[in-house]
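Write out this protein's structure.
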Amino acid sequence: MRPVQPWFVRVTHWANVVLFAIMAGSGLQIFIAYPLLGPRGGAYGWYPLQGVKPPAALTVGDWLAGARHWHFAFGWLFVANAVFYLAYLFASGEWRRRLFFPRRDARNAWDTLLHDLRIRSEAPAKVGLYNGMQRLTYTGVLATAPLLVLSGLAIYKPVQLPRLTALLGGYDAARAVHLLVLAALALFTAVHVIQVLRHPRTLVDMTLGREGRPEEAS
């Protein structure tokens, strides 16, 4: 018998909610200072929102300098929270329950997708704490998040970190990568919230924890 959601996972999860919201809001306020993607004097043809500024309700910091203060101050807390979480994930063995393994989870993820698309009527059984699609999405987020940090460093210190900036295609490309990863994580967050609203018991689990049955804890 053990909590399905250990206390350390719950604490870092809710800390990440707050930190990600601040980072996203302050980042959008910084973006407002130059809401174009592409080299100076040019534009990326694939980006349809050239010059469109994010709504003020989604921003943090009120102006460019204020947003930079928020962004750079909380950025280190965001990274520290992620490092603590990953250290716990592997030190505790939780990675076995939470990460995607193709041999164990691929078929279950496919069947879950078919069920969500209403192609299959019966939902596949979970393998432990999560189903295969949940593990695939969870692992994808963990794999994508470092790109958010690296692209942020590339545009924050392009002179001090020229190789990193060059690896990401240059300053303008790194800026586009930073925004695209933010958009992908924001989309994941929106879907995640919708799923929580559909299954509110999961909110209680992630807030208070609950005792799992022996087969859930294995």
